[in-house]
Amino acid sequence: MQGENVSLHCRKKDANSSYTAKFYKNGISIGSSSSGNIMAPTVSKSDEGLYKCSIADAGESPESWLSVADLGFPQVLPNRQQFFQGEPITISCEGLNGRTGWRVMKKINGDIRICASTWETLIGSCNICNAYPSTDSGEYWCEHGEIQKSNSVNITVSGHPTVPYFKFYLVLYTGLSLLLVVILLILAGLFQHHKHQQTIRSHTKEMSLTPDDDTLYSKAIYTTLRPGETELKGHKKRAD
User: Fold this and answer.
1) CATH number at residue 90
2) Domain that holds residue 60
3) Banded model confidence at residue 36, pLDDT cuts 50, 70, 90
4) Domains in the chain: how many in total?
5) pTM beyond 0.70
6) Do 103 and 149 belong together in one domain?
7) Average pLDDT along the chain
8) Cis peptide before 133, with omega less than 30 degrees from 0?
9) Out of 163-167, 169-173, 211-215, which region has the weakest mean confidence (pLDDT)?
């Protein structure tokens, strides 16, 4: 695993005699040891390769592939790398590769520091309550025991909305506009319905107050014409 120390051992069948072992990586000598051991400190991905050893009068060992496991990345919550000014950010390394006790480090404008007020107080997550471009935009990674170092992530804090947020606000504005149009159409329909009902009620009331033709013709309207003569609407009649 990256950051760990790796020991290479070379043994001779006849362990009672002293010997010097030479070690090779990809066919190139990387050192020798009279004890038959060699240390590769704080290995990284660049240390991967084929290793072998040789002992005088004993020959060479078979080659063995050394694989260096990746330490992974810090966990960023919310799970993205671009943020707005004032947003909260949590960077966690706990449980990385099954270990605890990680510290979150950051590099801002070339300055490397811990992601906390003091080195002694922070083991675990780094909580940024209100992100700010000049103090929180940078490179973040995890360290364990000042030796093991994880891969890094780059976090950008912007003071202005980015394209995804612009699209979100555009969709929100469009949706609210459509909702307003629907509400206005419903109100207009209700107004027209109410107006139509009022017209019907008014017309019904007028019809109930207007006399019909039979009533008008059934009434006798007399007009005095001259002494001894009257007129009944529609014909004349002389008084007896």
Assistant:
1) 2.60.40.10
2) 6-66
3) confident
4) 2
5) no
6) yes
7) 78
8) no
9) 211-215
